[in-house]
Specification:
Two copies of one chain form a homodimer.
Chain A (H helix, E strand, L loop, with lengths): L1 H4 L8 H7 L6 H12 L4 E2 H10 L6 H14 L3 E4 L5 E4 L5 E6 L5 E5 L5 H7 L4 E12 L1 H6 L2
Parallel strand pairs in A: 4-6
Antiparallel strand pairs in A: 1-3, 2-3, 4-5
Chain B binds a DNA duplex (25 and 25 nucleotides) through helix 2 and helix 4.
DNA sequence: GTGAGTGCAAACGATTTGCACGGTG
DNA sequence: CACCGTGCAAATCGTTTGCACTCAC
């Protein structure tokens, strides 16, 4: 769409989604959420900032962090801590795990096949678990092949 | 080479363990590993530094990070990223998961009942997985009870 | 003796904070 | 109109780095 190019990214139903989640439909939130919806994958706060700024929608890093924090809190965006100072954000419907390659740093989605309940029931009594984040680490297929 | 030289902390067989792992048995390493062995639970680098310094064994933060990194690499210490800039270290034999309370920040060990293999086989082909880190988040039993 | 490992301080990068303004509801 | 959320820059925090020296082997 030409509208998207002129600085107005795909934002159609996003405003209602935000309001439905209890958040005001502000421009930064629409931009960030729209960006994550359009660009599937994992993005750092820095990446989001740079991409939107490059798209003619300058946002400050501080604001992006604030916006992302709000979206995560509202459940519209998922965050994965793939290491110290490496928070990656993504807009996804289904929760999944992440594999991080030690060599190239690539982050790969891993569908969740086994629920975490068995472990939880064994170890936690009376706790309310909102979320389970699973990070696998190792060498990805490409790096393993390259290393022999 | 007298093993009793490292002072009041329990250091008995630690030197041999370090050497067995391919690391030199230096004083900082003995102190850090000894501390983690004596104080079961999860400790930040800052905590380790403060505790050893308070015990009359001053170590620099930089050195502690270096030592911890070495111990983790040697497999003598486990590290859990419980959030951005929240690396917690512990000396433990068996790998386990972690539950982090959103309210009080408490970190609870969760025994590992189900292996992660099912998810991996579904999502990753050709990759070599060294490690799986699982972080549960929610409200711990105490905080859930306190909140009603 | 030799090199790994440490002490040390300073750099670094990710994330957070405080306050005043602007836009949303 | 009231208030939430943003712009902005600077502060904060955990972690890493570079170099000279020391100690374990």
């Amino acid at each position: 769409m030409d509208a998207a190019r002129a600085g107005r990214l795909r934002v159609d139903g996003l405003a209602d989604e935000l309001r439905g989640a209890g958040l005001r439909a502000t421009r930064p939130r629409l931009l960030v959420l729209g960006f994550l919806r359009e660009h599937h994958g994992h993005h750092s706060a820095e990446e989001v900032t740079a991409a939107l700024t490059a798209a003619g929608e300058p946002l400050l890093r501080g604001s992006v962090y604030s916006v992302l924090g709000g979206l995560v809190g509202a459940g519209l965006v998922l965050v994965a801590d793939t290491g110290p100072g490496r928070s990656l954000y993504e807009a996804s419907d289904a929760w999944h795990h992440h594999f991080v390659c030690r060599v190239c740093g690539a982050v790969v989605d891993v569908p969740c096949v086994v629920g975490a309940r068995p472990c939880l029931e064994a170890g936690l009594v009376g706790a309310e678990v909102d979320e389970a984040q699973v990070i696998f680490r190792g060498r990805c297929a490409a790096c393993a092949a390259a290393a022999g």
